[in-house]
Write a structure and sequence with these properties.
Layout: E1 2-7, H1 11-23, E2 27-32, H2 35-44, E3 48-53, H3 59-67, E4 76-80, E5 89-91, E6 98-101, H4 106-117, H5 134-140, H6 151-161, H7 166-173, H8 177-191, H9 196-203, E7 207-209
Parallel strand pairs: 1-2, 1-3, 3-4, 4-6, 5-7
Helix pairs in contact: 5-6, 6-8, 6-9, 7-8
């Protein structure tokens, strides 16, 4: 079973999220109200997926560990207010794998955990417009470097925006994993983004800023 760590400062929300995930029988769930517990657990269980409140006391220490590569390979998604649906500008800390609303139902949470574990980014459904518009958005927005995306790069960006992993993108487009990785690196450089979730936000027309 997948290991999931829920980190939230509010005990009722923390217990509710942890219990919802544990009840499905798919995950081994631990929960903490502080960063120290999360860091200690993840260092001992590096195959964990972390869901952490964006306003958890000490969250900067967790994000520093993510940015510094200390938690390399551990997907970390931030839990945010349900009222935030589609902000114009989203601060995306490097290394963070996604955002989830705190009131997501259990099926959405379980799906998000599996998606994170697969290496893909997770975004709230309310932020996502119909997938058919993704390529058009990516095509219409000039990359920050001034270099336009090629047709293949736009296709790859659109699929990143749909939440596909490199392997899934390769199967969809008939490309090797190494080729997909090269295209994604080019997309990052041209779009001025640093990670997969920033690229997914960019694909959906949401401006991003490093946090």
């Amino acid at each position: 079973m997948l290991n999931v760590t829920v980190a939230h400062h509010h005990p009722l929300i923390r217990r509710g999220l942890a219990q919802s995930l544990a009840d499905g029988g798919e995950f081994t769930v631990t929960s903490y109200g502080d960063v120290d517990g999360v860091l200690a657990w993840v260092r001992a269980q590096p195959d964990s997926v972390v869901l952490a409140s964006r306003i958890l006391p000490g969250i900067d220490r967790l994000l520093d560990a993510v940015r510094g590569g200390e938690l390399s390979g551990v997907p970390v998604a931030l839990l945010g207010e349900a009222a935030v649906t589609r902000p114009t500008v989203v601060g995306v800390p490097p290394g963070v794998s996604g955002y989830l609303p705190e009131d997501a139902d259990v099926r959405a949470l379980a799906h998000a955990v599996h998606t994170l574990a697969s290496g893909a980014a997770v975004l709230p459904a309310a932020w996502i417009h119909r997938a058919g518009a993704t390529t058009a958005r990516a095509e219409s927005r000039e990359a920050y470097s001034g270099a336009p995306l090629s047709l293949r790069e736009r296709e790859v960006l659109a699929l990143v925006g749909e939440g596909l992993t490199n392997q899934q993108i390769g199967r969809r487009l008939g490309l090797s994993a190494g080729t997909v990785k090269s295209y994604i690196s080019a997309v990052y450089a041209k779009c001025g983004v640093d990670n997969r979730v920033q690229a997914a936000l960019f694909a959906h027309g949401i401006e991003v800023s490093a946090a």
